[in-house]
Amino acid sequence: MRTNLQLLILLVLLLFSGVAGARQEPKRLKLGYSIAITAITPQKMTYAKSVGIDYIEVSMNPLVGKNREFKLNDAQLLARAKQAKKAADDAGIKVWSVHMPYAKDIDLSLLKEEERLQAVALHQKVLTYCKILQPEIVLFHPSYYLGLNERDMRIKQLVKSVATLNMIVKQIGSAMVVENMLGFELLADAKRERPLCRTVEETRQIMDMLPADVYSAIDMNHIKHPENLILAMGKRLRSVHIADGTGKQENHYFPCSGQGQNNWVAILKALDQVGYSGPFMYESAYKDVKDMKPCYDSLYQNLLQSDKIDSILIAKNFPLLLQMEKKGTAEKALLKNKQLQQILTAQRERVHQAINSCKTVSCYAEAVKWNQKEVNEIGNELIRLKINGLERDTAVLRKSWNKCAMGINRIFDVYISSKAPRYPKIDSISFKRGDTLFLAQVQQLLNHKITGEKRLPFFELPLRTAIDILKLNGRDEAARYEPLNSGLNAAPFLKVGHTDWKAFKYSMILVPGLGPEVPGMALDPNGAKRCEAAVLRYKQGLAPFIVVSGGQVHPFRTPFNEAVEMKKYLVEKLGIPEDVVFIEPHARHTTTNIRNASRMIFRFGMPADKPVLIVTDTSQSKYIVERMGKTAMRDLGYLPYKNLAAQSPEDTVFYPIIQSQEPDPFDPLDP
């Protein structure tokens, strides 16, 4: 029979082996770009299709003057619309949207009723030509600039105009959308206020006043942190304008130009979260339409990499929560549970209050943490629910949950509040106390987390915040070089299944790393000597593999990885075949050198009944034999080995144990 511990370890192994596919991959979007109706030609459409464009947005602005006069007669307008439609159709490009004209006097919120009706009439005429283009979407600006203190009346005028135009838009088979506008400050100058829909709050207020079948369009250039507006609009978002900017000016930078301040990973995540399925519609400066697809591909790959990092960090630190997060019985049960949802609601309210009142990062940390009462109540509820797919043994389940909760709280303590980790010299927060930029970043992160979808599993808010806090600190070491059977380990991993283990005394030769204390030094000279000692044992035929172990440890936040640098030395300098040397690139201490090597044995299918040979210098060997056990019990709560014994001043042997698979979320850099 399996022990409770083995059941927990089995869960960890299953989750970790499938971590890359634990969350559904974000949907790829089709591409489109905005083009003036007067610029559409068969040649341009054919070229656009050939470089990956599937949709266009047709701007009608060139057809109308600022004084509400049409620049072409009716016959010319009709011909222009038909020519544009034919050019797009022949190239296989669909008209996704029509961008309606806008100017000071072409404003749906004009205060003088006669002028407002004239603006509405102009839009009605344009819509007759929109019918020819057959767009999915018709996009309107809510207003132009406003006079001082006109806002409330302007909103009322807009609501009337939208009610009229929406009926016509629906008659031509399209959906009406209203775009957010630039408005980081209320005043544009001494005499004017910025347009309507300038903030998340105002856009939400106005959209709530409009018919439910009028939707939102979001211009990523018009607002700082557009991801917050995306989440606020949710399912009501129907179209987007893609451009980078600062939120302060009409920059319309190309997203991959290196200009602007948008966080495109956050934007794409938000679009995926709300289920946006329209095109990625460029409305930006660009040199060539052919640059649009490579740009999107790059942004999408960055999103996938970010999701991969998140999934790995969750799988390694909090496998129980990853299991709960998967679509299926567990997720449904957690979403339906009133008590768990009440705890999440209370936590969201604490965070909301903190955003409005906190002056320190520690205040934010306390708001997002679970308190002990909540931890106990959640544990009781998880046990009571008896969810399929979760551990049935109540003691194991409670222990696993408590470790998750306390581990997440610990991340907030260390990486927001600057409390000391186990090893402050190497594992501390990356920001100085009192850093005002960090304070603003934490506030923004939390604001993002509580905006949008509210019906989530009870743990999502603190879990995702904790993962983002680790990344904000640059402390995603645990996700680097994963999965460990690829990359620098691909060749030796392939060799494992063809190894004649009977021919070797040991399963591996383990070489613990030695981090240099000198900034800029890649490999400590004494670390190189340990490698040289291991080569002597390898050439004696004692083991088929050398495992070099050590992460990015010394000095603080070093760019050099001990295991990677040791493998380079072994292969490039000492001539050891590349398929002989495994890297274990995460260990930060001698205890975890041994624990992580044991994990590799079980995960890679190496024989666990063969001993491991540790080769190092005499000082570390003495520590391993005489004092490391006490450190392991303090840090891990168990000894990550059995039958540890010295063979010589530089050689020690041990056997791996299955308990080494148990995660340690109190050390999130190498759990």
TrEMBL record:
<dbReference type="InterPro" id="IPR003848">
    <property type="entry name" value="DUF218"/>
</dbReference>
<feature type="domain" description="Xylose isomerase-like TIM barrel">
    <location>
        <begin position="47"/>
        <end position="285"/>
    </location>
</feature>
<dbReference type="InterPro" id="IPR036237">
    <property type="entry name" value="Xyl_isomerase-like_sf"/>
</dbReference>
<dbReference type="InterPro" id="IPR014729">
    <property type="entry name" value="Rossmann-like_a/b/a_fold"/>
</dbReference>
<dbReference type="InterPro" id="IPR050312">
    <property type="entry name" value="IolE/XylAMocC-like"/>
</dbReference>
<dbReference type="Pfam" id="PF01261">
    <property type="entry name" value="AP_endonuc_2"/>
</dbReference>
<dbReference type="GO" id="GO:0016853">
    <property type="term" value="F:isomerase activity"/>
</dbReference>
<dbReference type="InterPro" id="IPR013022">
    <property type="entry name" value="Xyl_isomerase-like_TIM-brl"/>
</dbReference>
<keyword id="KW-0413">Isomerase</keyword>
<feature type="domain" description="DUF218">
    <location>
        <begin position="509"/>
        <end position="624"/>
    </location>
</feature>
<protein>
    <submittedName>
        <fullName>Sugar phosphate isomerase/epimerase</fullName>
    </submittedName>
</protein>
<dbReference type="Pfam" id="PF02698">
    <property type="entry name" value="DUF218"/>
</dbReference>
